[in-house]
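Supplementary Methods, section 5.1.

A reviewer requested that the exact input to the structure prediction be made available. We therefore reproduce it here, unchanged from the version used in the analyses.
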Amino acid sequence: MMSRDSGNNRSDGRGRTESRGSVRSQIADDLGIDEDQITVQERTDRVETSLRDGGREQLREQTAEDSDFIETDDLTVDDEGFGASTAIADESRDDVAQRVARDTAADSPFVFEDDVDVEVTSRGIEEVEIDEDAVEQRFDALETIQDTGASVGTGEQPDVLRRLDALGDSADEILDRQETFTTNAPGLEDSAAFNISVFPDENRISPVGSVAFEDRGEVRDFLDAVADLPTEAITEIDGPLFDSEAIREERADRRVRRQTREAARETLDDAGLGDLGVDARSDGRVIVSDDDGMNRTARDIEGAVSAGAELDDDVEVRDIDGERRVVDSDTPTREDVRRDAAADLGVGQDAVDIRDGRLAVDRDALQSSIREDAVSQAQSDETTAEVTGEDIEVRLEGDGLDIRDDEVVFEGEDAELSPEIGFADSFLEEQRAEQESEIRDELVEDIDSQLPDVDIDA
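The structure derived from this sequence is encoded token-by-token as follows.
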């Protein structure tokens, strides 16, 4: 049960009244219902709320109003604990799916309700899929009918095709049922013209129409196409049936949408956004949606990645090496990597670059940083307190490094810098000379103290 900590509520009667009023106002604003439809009860350790019958009805109406396919009676209300939410009842999901399928099919005379697969959960409409293969089959049949050059009398097209379709599932089956139609000539062997008169029944009275062919070799293709065309298509597709331009436009539109949707789906999968829903428009726009019903519209497939990232708090789109890529939100940015690497290596951020996923550091800057650290460490010792940068030699070495004249490239995450640091030969010579001089001076001083009358040249 959901609850809210009421520890900050005042304990006197006035305070409790103010607290309850604030809670009512908050929930009313969140749900879009009247405050007087909310009841509030303060427990020892929490605040509990519930809705009156009128509040539940208001919440259902508000939710249904925000949806094209969900009705008030489809919804249940959960108002236990704190706040309230709606869900689609199990017994209403089929009804919601049917409304979606009916509406989707109404967009095109080539799509029927049975072609539309709708997934409805308690949260809402999760996914809508159209059997595009079935739609393509209808387009193929219609185009075949057009390509045969068959001529059907004006106003007779649907009735003639419905009747022929009812005679069989193939050209041979239809031709075997000649009790329901007559022809002007038997056989289909030569290329002479061929006419069919179609009757409503075996009585052959008052034909429903006729079909004329310039070449009887096209008859089988025509009848096979009619048999392939679902009865619903013949019923619903009237005007555009022999309008080749309308069919081409409709088919081209659906193909573009399908190709765009498939390409967008592949792109989102590659970007790690495969859990998002995808739809497309014939103008190339892509609609991306999440499980909560939130959606974004992008102008193109590339934009769909950015749109999808907006719906997923765990990822974001970044420009990496000139490409737009989806990465985890907690992945360090390019500037983060440069800044951290510069800090670790003791160089300025402008001395660090990232190319092709590899870290490149200015060689002079890197050597100077290492040399400065070595000088600082040497000067902390009395014997080398006078050391300067010129006294230190640095040789860059390590594992997984590409050491070039002007930069050092770290080839991978395991690359490690292990520089060799030492004193310059000139410094060592100077140190030896100073030590020898000190030894001689000490020796002269010692002899002089023991033999004061002897003159010794150091």
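The CA atoms of residues 33 and 59 lie 6 Å apart. These observations are discussed further in the main text.
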